[in-house]
Structure formats: structure tokens, C-alpha cells
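User: Can you predict the 3D structure of Aminomethyltransferase? Sequence below.
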Amino acid sequence: MRGSLWQLGQSIIHRLSEADKKAVARRYFASEADLKKTVLYDFHVAHGGKMVPFAGWSMPIQYKDSIMDSTVNCRENGGLFDVSHMCGLSLKGKDSVSFLEKLVIADVAGLAPGTGTLTVFTNEKGGAIDDSVITKVKDDHIYLVVNAGCRDKDLAHIEEHMKAFKAKGGDVSWHIHDERSLLALQGPLAAPVLQHLTKDDLSKLYFGEFRILDINGATCFLTRTGYTGEDGFEISVPSENALDLAKAILEKSEGKVRLTGLGARDSLRLEAGLCLYGNDMEQHISPVEAGLTWAIGKRRRAEGGFLGAEVILKQLAEGPSIRRVGFTSTGPPPRSHSEIQDEKGNNIGEITSGGFSPCLKKNIAMGYVKSGLHKAGTKAKILVRGKAYDGVVTKMPFVPTKYYKPS
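Assistant: Sure. Here are the predicted C-alpha cells for Aminomethyltransferase:
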């Protein structure tokens, strides 16, 4: 079962011009010798990890259990993901907030220290360069994580604007945390298992909050967040301590938390209705079209001041022409680029992610349709291998989220 991550690589290559195909093939499907490896690579292999190329890294797509079993176990017990291929970085300086607000849609200034939010880096046309979770550690320190496949373009984009900002006297610098690894611990056992490894009271750390604390003897950046819809944490740990931490988490869970690969990570995020950059968001899709209007801070809507603000604020006022929606469907699971039609056979959009939900035991998908046809309950036809199957627009998330928030 190769899953949507394999489909992602194939679809990206399919969409590009012939001149670009070789370059992207090298990026997503490099030879084994060219691939970067996380510090847990040997640990994955020893535990039966099936390693595949992804965004220039050799990553486990699954282990000895199936992707379906691994997905269900994460929701019932817990999953431990190595996401060290993603890029963590810090912005520091008294002007780091005002600098970042030129590049993202979030109200960074309005964040309380120790809290974070999902945001989007935009381009001049209002399209999404990448999505990112950003945290205001302090007023002069921002920590953020960007996607592995977007690392090079994101860093080049940030650096270009930082040089111009500093040339005008702005006080901002950055550090890319290549000395750290990133683990994601997700599921109902995440908090009780991790509590065994730290003296800090995790019951006082809520969804979206950030702390620097000692975990298993190492100084870690801990964010209560994740990419599954479950309660959980992303843990930035010094790379020399990553293996010991992974072993300790698995040991303290008494076998209930399992190593979990990119295949189940994709199933989990789809069930949670979360975007995968490169599939559900791209440089021609705006945050409004992607259903991320909530991520545009109220002050930012009034003031603008970020790249593409004119386009995005116009869409907020007038409504976008297309919208991201969820679907359930009959027949084979829809995949990226499956055509969406109305009941009369007219093209109304395209699927961007889809598959069989291991937890719901039915097909789920998300895609873009013309505005006016985006309301829950709207019937549609979805083409899979040239044949039309019944589909219906469905509210997301497909599986209820279980983020840990104050009651």
C-alpha cells in the first residue's frame, strides 16, 4: 500500500513541464546514496521500517504493521513519528515579529509568549508558498517549522526579505536548527507517556502552547500540537539525545505507542481534514480558497501588510471563486486529480487528496469546487479511472479532533 505520499510525488512530476521533470524526480526520488538520513535511520530499519525516498530524505512509510493498523492504533493508543526531515528555525531580534508579519497572514504580535498558531507564507499574488506552525517564544524570539519539501524555497524566500529588511535597519537574525531532531508523539497516550519523562506538569500545557523544558535529560522545545487531529506533542530534541528519547517513549508506553510511518501520518491528517502542501495547497491557491480564513488575524484583515494582502482581502470581502471541501464517495477511493462533476456531468473541480479511511472504513477526500457548490450535502460525481461514482460534500474534519484545550 503505497498511499498518498507516493501519489504526491507522482502527481507533482505529472503536473510539471517536461523541462522540470528530471529536476523534481531527483528531488523526490533520488538514489539511495543521495538521500539524507535522520539520526534514527538505523533505529527505523532495525524495527522493520520500510524506507522510501521523500523530499530528499530516506523516511519510513510503514513498519511491520499495516498502514491501516498503524493509523487506528495512533487514534486508540498512540504513534511516534520521526519528522526530523522538517526544518525548524528561530528568528531573533527586537524586530523579528514585525519582519515575520510581512511574510505571513498570522497576527504574530497578538500571540502571547509561549503560544503559537498555524499560518501561511504568501506570495505577491496571495498564493501559499508554504504553511507553517509558528510560536512566539518571547517578544524577540519566534520558533517555526517549515515543510521538508519546501525547505529550500522557504529559506531562500525568508533570506531574501531578511536582507532587505536588515538593510533598512531592522533587527532580525535567524538560526536553522540542523543540530536538533523532531519527534511527533500523538494519540490518547501521548501525555501520560511523556509525563513519565519530565518533571513539568503537562496538564498545564494546552493545545498550541510551547515550552522549553527537560525531557529524559535533554533540553527540548515542546509544542502541544500535531498533524493527526489527536492530542499530542512535537518535540525538538538535540540530535545526540533523539535515539534515547525515542526508546524511552516506546518503553514507557509498554508497547502501546508504536513507531508510525509517513503512510499512516497521511491517513491521519486526511481524516483530520488537514492540508498537505503540494497537494491541497500550492502557490496558486490562497489561504481563503484553502479554507484557512480563520488563520488570518483580525488585525491583519484590517491592516494587511503581508505579501498578496490586496488579493486576499478582496477575496475575504467578495468571496473566493473556488473553495476546499471534503467528500465521501462510493466506489474506488478517489486520488489526487480525480475530476469532480455535478450531477449533470459538468466539471466543477478536482480532488487534491483522497483515500480509504482506516478509522471510518469508507472513502474520504478533499478537493476544490466552484463557490456555491461547496455546501455540505451537495451531491457530485467523482471520476476514478474514467468512471463516475457518487460523492457528497462533507464537513471536515472527518474524524472529530481531540486537541487538549481548557474546559
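The domain at 34-319 is CATH 3.30.1360.120 (Gyrase A; domain 2). Residues 6-30 have pLDDT under 50 and may be disordered.
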